[in-house]
Amino acid sequence: MSRTLSVLLSWLSSFVVACLVGSALKDRRTGITAGLVSATIAAAVSWLAYDIVDAAEERRATETTPEPFSDDS
Asked: DSSP state, 54?
């Protein structure tokens, strides 16, 4: 999954959940505001997490694997 798609799905799902919860607890305007704030934070976290995971995968791919232990006595 690309970084953009990951951020978009994270933003959308967070917006929907926060909007529904905010609307249920108070009114529609509160739901929209909660949705926008929550979705923006979730998208930023998703963007950063994707970067961290990508760096970890690159590091793991470049590390050399140790030779397996053999008991040739």
From this structure: H
- Greater pLDDT, 61 or 73: 61
Burial class (CB in 10 A: 0-12, 13-18, 19+), 42: buried
Assigned token pair, 34:
């909660």
**CA–CA separation, 32 vs 9, rounded Å?**
17
CA 44 to chain centre: 8
What confidence tens digit (pLDDT) does each residue in 23-64 have? 999 999 999 999 999 999 999 999 898 888 888 888 887 776
If one counts every other C-beta atom within 10 angstroms of the C-beta of residue 31, the result is 19
Contacts with 33 (C-beta within 8 Å, 6 or more apart), sequence order? 22
pLDDT at 61: 77
Question: Is-contact 20 31, C-beta < 8 A?
Answer: yes
